[in-house]
Amino acid sequence: MPRILITGSTGFIGGRVAATAAALPDVGHLRLLARRPLPPAAPAPATGAALRPAGGSAGQERNQDGRPDFETVVGDLRDPASLHRACAGVDVLIHCASAIGADEETARSVNDEGTRALVDAAVRAGVTRIVALSTASVHGRGPFRAAAPGTLPLAPGSTTSRTRAAGERHVLAAGGAVLRPHLVYGVGDRQLVPGLVRLLAELPGPLDAGASLHSVTGVDGLARALLGAALSERAPAGAYYVAHPEPVPVAELLAPCEALLAGRAGPPRGPAVGIAEARALLADVPFALHHLAMLATDHWFDDDRPRREWAHDPGPNYTTGIAAPMNWYREFLSEA
User: Angle at the Cα of 33 (from 32 to 35), degrees rounded to 5?
Assistant: First the structure.
């Protein structure tokens, strides 16, 4: 059974990957790379499910209940020596760590140079498969309508997406697979849905963003995709889009966000606001303008290879799946 190293395991997506892997019968051992030691029986981020440290000798690979043992190793993508230690004895690398919204120097040192150092360490250690989490934002702003694999150039428009695109090249050069989701929601999401709620809160009424279509995936489905690529009999290589096969109309994307906003104190909502009016109202709110530009255009990526090549189960569509984390979002937003 494979020994898996997961980076970014204290984050939104990496934490879900770690928790999902911990329940799989065909995983021998989990090693989690963290910048600081985790306490014993630390709950996996965004799940509440405890990951128990490995007991016994280093060769013991499963607990008595059949779940894989795990260990946390302290390291940093900016410390190559720690990466060599982390990769030693590992069969599979799932790379989920990244610096999002960081300054230029930090983003480059983590997303680009750090990924290069990690891939180099993995190759030297004899890791047989590398799977990395990236983002469809490496293509920049749409419109992208039913965009097929290999049809779009890299055109990143931000420091984060530019350095993540640079990091992709190291994974691809080593024969690894890069997974590119667009919008990801679920328990632990502090960016997508909270950001859309913040946008709507800046407007006097609901946003009428037109008829754009968006690729969306739940974090559970994305975790399964990363693990599926890592454990499939056929080793995937190249870049893949990961999303539920049904694109989400922008009105359906925003409806749960408007419902979350309706539960908060404030004046009654007025009539719907169109994109042009919203741009004028939000001219001095940079984050909101960024979200508006995304919402106003199609970002629909059509790639059935994960389902064909490693039987990826995307889970429920957004309209159904968003119901499960709504209470978590309400609690998070009430504390924000």
Answer: 135
What pTM does this model have?
0.91
Cβ-contact 211, 244 below 8 angstroms: no
Q: How far apart are CA 253 and CA 248, in angstroms?
A: 6
Sign of CA dihedral 8, 291, 243, 255: positive
* Mode of pairing for the β-strands spanning 248-249 and 213-214: antiparallel
Task: Indicate the burial class of 3 (C-beta count within 10 angstroms; 0-12, 13-18, 19 or more).
Answer: middle
- CA–CA dist 179, 167 (Å, integer): 12
pLDDT digits (tens, 9 = 90+) for 102-130: 999 999 999 999 999 999 999 999 999 99
pLDDT tens-digit map of 180-204: 999 999 999 999 999 999 999 999 9
Environment class of residue 25 by beta-carbon count within 10 Å: exposed (0-12), middle (13-18) or buried (19+)?
Answer: exposed
User: Which burial class, exposed, middle or buried, applies to 122 when counting CB atoms under 10 A from its CB (0-12, 13-18, 19+)?
Assistant: buried
DSSP string, 82-130: HHHHHHTT-SEEEE-----S--HHHHIIIIIHHHHHHHHHHHHHT--EE
203, 168 Cβ separation under 8 angstroms: no
Stretch (H or E) spanning 81: helix 80-87
Residue with tokens 């909502």: 269
Q: How far apart are CA 20 and CA 37, in angstroms?
A: 21
Q: Which two tokens stand for residue 46?
A: 């965004």
Which long-range contacts does 305-309 make (Cβ < 8 Å, 24+ apart)?
Answer: 305/149, 305/236, 305/240, 306/179, 306/225, 306/228, 306/229, 306/240, 306/242, 307/245, 309/232, 309/234, 309/236
Q: How far apart are CA 136 and CA 299, in angstroms?
A: 9
CA distance 45 to 32: 12
